[in-house]
């Protein structure tokens, strides 16, 4: 499977659910294993939630969510208008109410990072893709290679 999508979303909490539904539907329709879909959707949700919590919208007043699927990986990204601080994984205490989003992304994703463009900041993550094998057992392909998301 090779597919990609770019979705412009309102700068609003309801956008997280809308993005989750669209991404999940596309990946499942493409035949990806449910476990991989769950991981990719969780990563995208954390990136989008962090953007809404810590960053400004793009000049259009929206956020851009994108994903690219290949045979061995899915890259998801969220672009916003940037924030006063650089996105980084925190190390919250057990009693902390927040601060776990990028730690979750770091745990699930093979890699993640931040790109700065003219008026936007993009946080991206790459998750290894798993597809059902012909005998019904999950098949995971080779080492993912980084691909830029426009």
From TrEMBL:
- Domain of life the protein comes from: Bacteria
| One Pfam entry name | HATPase_c_2
Q: Name one GO molecular function term.
A: protein serine/threonine kinase activity
Q: Does the keyword Transferase apply?
A: yes
Q: Which key words are in the record?
A: Kinase, Serine/threonine-protein kinase, Transferase
Q: Which residues cross the membrane?
A: none
Coiled-coil ranges (or none)? none
Q: Which residues form the Histidine kinase/HSP90-like ATPase domain?
A: 11-126
Tell me the PANTHER family matching this sequence. Answer: ANTI-SIGMA-F FACTOR RSBW, ANTI-SIGMA-F FACTOR RSBW-RELATED
Listed name of the protein:
Histidine kinase/HSP90-like ATPase domain-containing protein
State the organism of origin.
Answer: Planotetraspora thailandica
């Amino acid at each position: 499977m090779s597919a990609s999508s770019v979705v412009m979303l309102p700068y609003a909490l309801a956008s997280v659910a809308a993005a989750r539904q669209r991404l999940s539907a596309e990946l499942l329709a493409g035949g990806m294993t449910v476990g991989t879909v769950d991981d990719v959707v969780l990563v995208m949700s954390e990136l989008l939630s962090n953007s809404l919590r810590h960053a400004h919208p793009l000049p259009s007043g929206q956020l851009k969510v994108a994903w690219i699927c290949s045979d061995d990986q899915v890259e998801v990204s969220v672009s916003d208008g940037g924030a006063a601080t650089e996105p980084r994984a925190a190390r919250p205490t057990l009693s902390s109410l927040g601060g776990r989003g990028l730690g979750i992304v770091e745990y699930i994703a093979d890699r993640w990072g931040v790109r700065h463009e003219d008026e936007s900041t993009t946080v991206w993550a790459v998750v290894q893709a798993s597809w059902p094998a012909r005998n019904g057992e999950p098949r995971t392909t080779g080492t993912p290679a980084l691909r830029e998301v426009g």
